[in-house]
Amino acid sequence: MLRELMLGPRRFSDLKADLPGISANVLTQRLTELEQRGLIRRTKLPPPASVQVYEATRWALDAGPILCELGRWAFRSPRHDPTQPVSAVAIMLSMQTNFDPKLAGDFSAAIGFRFGDSPYFASVEGGKIEVGPGVPARVEAMINCSPDDLKPVLYAGAPVEDLDIKGDIEAAARFVRLFSLPPKVEPGA
Fold it and tell me: What pLDDT, on the 0 to 100 scale, is given for residue 189?
């Protein structure tokens, strides 16, 4: 659940929608526990939104690299099921986790993503990647899809043409090939 707050504050309803199978009661319990432990806080967005959101504390954000390493470890599981649904935050963090600087070379681009009403970006420069919420003023391409539609393009070699792309399609095609999953562990190994 903390993963879902790594890229910014979220409303309860957004968290519930992105965590399939969790009941409202269980979500409330977990959010309360995380708040009591000092990992998240409730706050209110300024007008015109004026809605309550949950956000990770500075201390919780320090766990971001640990969560990415846990993600890399989980990808190696022989029981990892890549067909399971993934949230927008999870797919963005997976890009950060599975980015391969050797594949990037001198590639430099900012790519925007719109998952429903939620905008995100990934920016590659100097062999590094940055992901975050929102979309910078200048992007080479904007990809409109669901996280589940993006996943096979990033990690299973599905064609980039399966996505709705506006802008520089060649930059988007190169971008989606910058990721490699770690090898699976052999069952029983």
Answer: 65
